Every structure is written in structure tokens, then in C-alpha cells.
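RECORD TYPE: inverse folding
INPUT: C-alpha cells
STRUCTURE:
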């Protein structure tokens, strides 16, 4: 392999001009997807590496995007991170990932660190729908921000996430078809917009479908909350026909604890989730759940971020994407 491979070598190998090779490797527009793949393949074969410092000095851009998530270990967030990283790679950007652990003070520190690193933009899954706002607002003006998955109470940035009400509506339509007349709920508190919207949608749709609301429990997006919810709902009695869960992790915690207490899912009670990641397909019984369009959320969020990084000044957008329902064994008595 030749040492000190230059951009001219890559261009010659791909049969394109140096300018085209540069655009393809930097993720700039006016280059087809096929051309980008060809140029990058040649660059990899030749061992060509872009000097990030030189490019940053030349372009006035670090080509870095930061992303802050509350808990990296949550399966849905891991899936979303992968999709975001793929989208950024196509645009010629690298991802810097930070975990706030769900604490606003940690989120503030992570935002400060990313700002000091002079990232070009930040994607944030806010820890708290109100308390997270000041630190986002106080970021330097030249750092673009897009909120993902969880919105803030006030529109202080663009936002991309799922349509929570439509997701819960899909669940209720399915439960009605199963003859459910009494429902319980295992979700999260008011700290996040997802927690609020799924809780409020649950009550609205229960009324719309004429279903009685049984015991409910609100905690966190975790297995432990699902376990606690199962205990609360069983002890409150009578057992509802179905338990609507605010996430797949919560649903798995609910089902695990119900089993420990001698109850069968779906024979004794139906259980649904929300997210639709790998966990919903590998757990037994498989989950009936709302599948979030992760790839579309990532693509939309990165697209909005790129627009802001390019100097876009239009009104903030709130894009809510439609989910789908995945049927699983947790609601099938067949």
C-alpha cells in the first residue's frame, strides 16, 4: 500500500475529478449516493485518511455532531444511536456520544463539554421537559440543536419524535378487537413529554373505546418500574384484562413479575409495549408493541440539524412520525 496517499490518488482511482472526490468524502451535496460509495471504497482500499484538523481549519467546521441520551443502555436509544451515526456518516460527520444518566445536572455538564469541543451541532434526548430547557437555550448561537424522541415544553429547537397518541390508539384498537373491557397502565411520570403524552392518550382512548380504567402505575423507563407496576396492579385488584405499558422495557418487567406471582401472559392478562426494538422480538412471549420508525426519526433529525448548521432560520419544526403496530404473543390467546 502506498504511503502518504493523497486526494488526487483517490480521485484517479475512482475516475473522478479531485473536486468531486473531495465532495464525496466530505458529505457535501451534488454527489450521487453511488459516487459517494465508489469514492469511499477507493479511499478505503488505498488507505486514504482525511486530516480532520486541516479540514476543520479549511472549512471552519469540526465535522463533529454531539448526541446526548439519558441512558445509552436502553435498547431503543441504542437502536436510535446506530441510525443517527449512519445518517451522519453519509453526510461526512462523526458522532460524539454522551450519556446524561437521566440527570439534568449531568446533561448540563455534557452540553458544556460538547460546546467546548466546538461541535457543529447537537442532537439531544432531553432528561426533563422543563428543567432541560435553560441549558439548551444558553448554548452558543453557532451550535445548532435538534431535540429527538422527547420534546421540550416550549419550542426552543426543532424536534423529531413519534406520534405518541397514534401509537396508543393502535394499541387500543387491537385490544378492543380482543374483547378487552378493563385496562391497567404501567408507564412513566411527568418528567418527559413521552411520559405525559402516553399517559394522557391512555385515558382519552380508554374513554373513547368505553373501557374501564383499572389500577395504574407511573415510574421510569426501566425493567424495575415494570416489576413495581406489576406488583401494584395485582395487589390493587381486580386484575385488568390488559396492561398497557409505556415502553418495551416496562412491559418485560411487568410480564416477568406476573410470572413470578403465578400469572400467565396472555392467558390471565394481556400486556403491550411501546418502542418495537429487538427486545420485543426476542423476549417470550414476543411483545405486541408500538414500533417507532427509528430510521426515519434519525434521518429527519439529521436533516433538520444539517439545515440549521447551514444557517437555516425558519420557524422551529415539530415533526411527529407515524408508528406501526407489531403483533406478538403477549396479546394472543390463540
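DESIGNED SEQUENCE:
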Amino acid at each position: 500500500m502506498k504511503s502518504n496517499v493523497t486526494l488526487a490518488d483517490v480521485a484517479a482511482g475512482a475516475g473522478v475529478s479531485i473536486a468531486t472526490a473531495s465532495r464525496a468524502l466530505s458529505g457535501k451535496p451534488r454527489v450521487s449516493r453511488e459516487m459517494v460509495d465508489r469514492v469511499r471504497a477507493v479511499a478505503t482500499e488505498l488507505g486514504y485518511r482525511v486530516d480532520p484538523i486541516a479540514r476543520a481549519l479549511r472549512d471552519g467546521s469540526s465535522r463533529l455532531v454531539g448526541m446526548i441520551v439519558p441512558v445509552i443502555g436502553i435498547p431503543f436509544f441504542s437502536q436510535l444511536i446506530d441510525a443517527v451515526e449512519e445518517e451522519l456518516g453519509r453526510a461526512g460527520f462523526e458522532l460524539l456520544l454522551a450519556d446524561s444518566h437521566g440527570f439534568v445536572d449531568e446533561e448540563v455538564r455534557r452540553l458544556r463539554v460538547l460546546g467546548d469541543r466546538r461541535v457543529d451541532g447537537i442532537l439531544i434526548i432531553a432528561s426533563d421537559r422543563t428543567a432541560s430547557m435553560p441549558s439548551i437555550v444558553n448554548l452558543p448561537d453557532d451550535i445548532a440543536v435538534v431535540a429527538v424522541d422527547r420534546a421540550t415544553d416550549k419550542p426552543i429547537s426543532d424536534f423529531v419524535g413519534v406520534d405518541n397518541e397514534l401509537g396508543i390508539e393502535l394499541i387500543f384498537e387491537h385490544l378492543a378487537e380482543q374483547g378487552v373491557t378493563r385496562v391497567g397502565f404501567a408507564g412513566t411520570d411527568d418528567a418527559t413529554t413521552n411520559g405525559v403524552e402516553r399517559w394522557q392518550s391512555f385515558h382519552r382512548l380508554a374513554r373513547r373505546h368505553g373501557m374501564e380504567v383499572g389500577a395504574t402505575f407511573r415510574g421510569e423507563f426501566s425493567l424495575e418500574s415494570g416489576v413495581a407496576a406489576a406488583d401494584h396492579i395485582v395487589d390493587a385488584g381486580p386484575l385488568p384484562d390488559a396492561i398497557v405499558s409505556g415502553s418495551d422495557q416496562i412491559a418485560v418487567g411487568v410480564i416477568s413479575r406476573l410470572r413470578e406471582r403465578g400469572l400467565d401472559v396472555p392467558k390471565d392478562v394481556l400486556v403491550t409495549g411501546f418502542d418495537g426494538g429487538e427486545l420485543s422480538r426476542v423476549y417470550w412471549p414476543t411483545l405486541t408493541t408500538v414500533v417507532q420508525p427509528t430510521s426515519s426519526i434519525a434521518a429527519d433529525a439529521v436533516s433538520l440539524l444539517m439545515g440549521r448548521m447551514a444557517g437555516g432560520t425558519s420557524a422551529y419544526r415539530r415533526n411527529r412520525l407515524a408508528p406501526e403496530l407489531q403483533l406478538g404473543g403477549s396479546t394472543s390467546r390463540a
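NOTES: Residues 75-90 form the longest helix (16 residues).
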